[in-house]
Amino acid sequence: MTLAPSIVERLARARGDLRMGVPVVLTDAGRAALVVAVESLEAPRLAELRAMGQPELAITVRRAETLKVRAYDGDLARIALPPDAGLDWLHAMADPVDDLRVPMKGPFQSLRDGPADLHRAAIALAKSAHLLPAALVLPVPDGLALAGRHGLTLIPLAEAAPELLRASPLHPVVSARLPMVASTAGRVHIFRPEDGGEEHYAIEIGRPDRSAPVLARLHSACFTGDVLGSLKCDCGPQLRAALAQMGAAGAGVLLYLNQEGRGIGLANKMRAYALQDQGFDTVQANHRLGFEDDERDFRLGAGILRQMGFSAVRLLTNNPRKLAMMESNGIHVAERVPLHVGQTAQNADYLATKAAKSGHLL
Ligand SMILES: Nc1nc2c(ncn2[C@@H]2O[C@H](COP(=O)(O)OP(=O)(O)OP(=O)(O)O)[C@@H](O)[C@H]2O)c(=O)[nH]1
Ligand SMILES: [Zn+2]
Question: Which atom of ligand 1 lies nearest, measured to the CA of 262?
């Protein structure tokens, strides 16, 4: 143990830096770049980056499809920043809110030479900071010296890549009894990830037998549905119905996973809702923002169940991806228990889209 922060700690710092609009230095195989998230970039830093060289805009292939930008790097596109492009142009490239009003922002000069690893890592970091997935990347000759001179966080990709790929280990923090409407025998367990990310919760009802499949639900946080009673989705009724079913059975475990908006964060989910008001469905809206349909990592649910001593579940869900992810992460799904509640006039299209495009079972 040393006083210097580890790579996991520096990655947590980098996420905080990007949210604050502070550049981060990424290095890989002798190359280096200064990276800022477009969403949090401000004019003085943009001017400084321009004065230092030729910044490149990195966006996901999803966003590139909407903008009709050529993508030569598979999952992403790199665009040379046009000489006259200012902050407004960059924000419009990242944020689809005005796409319909101002559909074409080109012509674009997509870059195809050279590796895109630093750009890819920049987008991954922006996503994990719950920002729009767009970054400005400025190649620099000596990343180490630059980071040292300005006190910037330095991330060597060779060290960071395994950390970005693995599910962060979670540690139990505390648990306490919680009598609830659904059951007076409730207990809330808090789990904290090592990577400085969101905490997740397990709500245990009764004392489920660890040697038999437990009635379980993986619930993804939905502030609008769970708390506000939104009629646009079925999350609130699903949450309450799952707890009620566990209460009636006398045993069960509900994981409340803080993966708001299928992992894109509440601000981005609200951006998706604004696009839905323009006529796009839930999947199209995510794509226009530059995200995949579902950015959640279900491995952490399996990890929490294992830590709590469960190895098999009767899973309350209509989502086949959850079944597959449980099995591939060492939790046997003995049974799928369907959970159809909370249909409203306002969420009929949303539920139909989930069945048609996301494979949800009816
Ligand atoms: N990005 C985005 N997220 C949404 C939208 N509507 C709901 N969510 C989020 O979706 C998550 C719920 O996931 P769902 O796909 O509805 O259901 P599921 O949990 O995968 O599947 P079930 O187990 O069958 O309920 C929550 O995190 C919600 O915040 C939307 O329109 N856009
Ligand atoms: Zn919801």
Answer: 27
Mention every residue, 6+ apart, whose C-beta is less than 8 A from residue 235.
219, 220, 222, 224, 225, 226, 342
Q: Which of 187, 216, 199 is nearest to 305 (CA)?
A: 216
Which residue is listed with tokens 């009929």? 348
Question: ipTM exceeding 0.85?
Answer: yes
Ligand lying closest to the C-alpha of residue 220: 1
> 178-210 pLDDT, tens per residue?
999 999 999 999 999 999 999 999 999 999 999
pTM (two decimals): 0.95
- Ligand 2 mean position, distance from CA 358 (Å): 15
List C-alpha distances in Å: 16 to 149, 197, 230, 293.
20, 11, 30, 25
User: What's the gap between Cα 234 and its chain centre?
Assistant: 20
- Residue 71 to residue 91: CA distance in whole angstroms: 19
The per-residue pLDDT of the chain, averaged, comes to: 95
Tell me, in angstroms, the distance from the centre of ligand 2 to residue 8's CA: 31
User: Distance from the CA of 92 to the center of ligand 2, in angstroms?
Assistant: 27
Unique residue bearing structure tokens 């195809």: 112
Pocket test for ligand 1, best of 235, 297, 346 (most atoms within 8 A of CB): 235
**Active-site amino acid positions:** 294, 296
Cβ-count burial of 263 within 10 angstroms (0-12 exposed, 13-18 middle, 19+ buried)?
Answer: buried
271: number of Cβ within 10 Å? 22
* Interatomic CA distance for residues 93 and 87, integer angstroms: 10
Say if residue 233 carries a ligand binding annotation. Answer: yes
Closest-CA residue, ligand 1 atom 5, reads: 261
Residues with CB under 5 A from ligand 2 (ion): 222, 225, 233, 235
Is 70 exceeded by the pLDDT of residue 1?
Answer: no
Q: State the ligand closest to the CA atom of 298.
A: 1
Model pLDDT for residues 84-137, shown as the tens digit of each residue: 999 999 999 999 998 988 776 788 999 999 999 999 999 999 999 999 999 999
Task: Check whether 2 is labelled as a binding-site residue.
Answer: no
